[in-house]
Design a protein that fits this description.
0% helix
Length: 118
């Protein structure tokens, strides 16, 4: 089993920054794919950014140049980060961490709320 715990969400003014973190722990320590997704009220969950175990990254067009995804590991925990800069009201959503140890298996965190408002 794998546990994913997101943190770092909160209220920020437009133009501000936040850094989201996701800690992945449990019996699996290797993930070929990790990603951040978000879901705004009344909207479908969408991919924000992803990163492979070879550090290949992919971003949604709406966040390119503003967000940066990275991953790291320490002891028995894998960490996934999302640095979010120049935040806009339309970035408001619940952000979820996803991790895939191999094709066909995927784990999700419970999400962290990001609110961009003045």
């Amino acid at each position: 089993q794998v546990q994913l715990v997101e943190s770092g969400g909160g209220l920020v003014q437009p133009g501000g920054s936040l850094r989201l973190s996701c800690a992945a722990s449990g019996s699996i320590f290797s993930f070929y794919y990790m990603g951040w997704y978000r879901q705004a009220p009344g909207e479908r969950r969408e991919l924000v950014a992803s990163i492979t175990n070879e550090r290949s990254t992919n971003y949604a067009d709406s966040v390119k140049g503003r967000f940066a995804i990275s991953r790291d590991n320490a002891r028995n925990t894998m960490y996934l980060y999302l640095q979010m800069n120049s935040l806009k009201p339309e970035d408001t959503a619940v952000y979820y961490c996803s991790a895939r140890p191999h094709p066909g298996m995927e784990y999700w965190g419970k999400g962290t709320l990001v609110t961009v408002s003045s």
